[in-house]
Structure formats: C-alpha cells, structure tokens
Amino acid sequence: MALRYESRDVTRERATGQIVSGSETISETTEIWTFVRQRGGDWKLSAIQEA
After folding, report:
1. Model pTM greater than 0.85?
2. How far apart are CA 51 and CA 48, in angstroms?
C-alpha cells in the first residue's frame, strides 16, 4: 500500500508554546507499506519504506 501525507514535526515548550526543535514547515512524505500473512492467518505489517 502507498501512503502519501503531509506533516509538521515540531516540539514545543508546554509553558510558552515556543518551538524547541523542528519546524512549522509542512513536508510531504510517501511511504510504501508491505503486509504478509500465512494462509488463513491475520495480515501483519512486515516493512515500511520511504519512496
């Protein structure tokens, strides 16, 4: 399955709301998720790759 999403990776100081690390800039990411299962079993996530 291919997932494409936008995100912000920011850590803020709780008391002031000031950014401690990261950025407000939005980044777009695409990931490929691979699932496997044994016959009759449940699907399990086996790999995540950045595309």
Report:
1. no
2. 10
In the numeric block, which tokens belong to residue 34?
């691979």
Is there a contact between 51 and 33 (Cβ–Cβ < 8 Å)?
no
- φ/ψ of residue 4, rounded to 5: -125, 130
Mean pLDDT of 23-50: 96
DSSP state of 41: S
> Could you give the CA distance from residue 13 to residue 19 in angstroms, rounded to a whole number?
6
Question: What are the structure tokens assigned to 33, written together?
Answer: 């998720």
Q: Are 1 and 36 in contact (CB under 8 A)?
A: no
> Look-up: residue for tokens 């709780």?
14
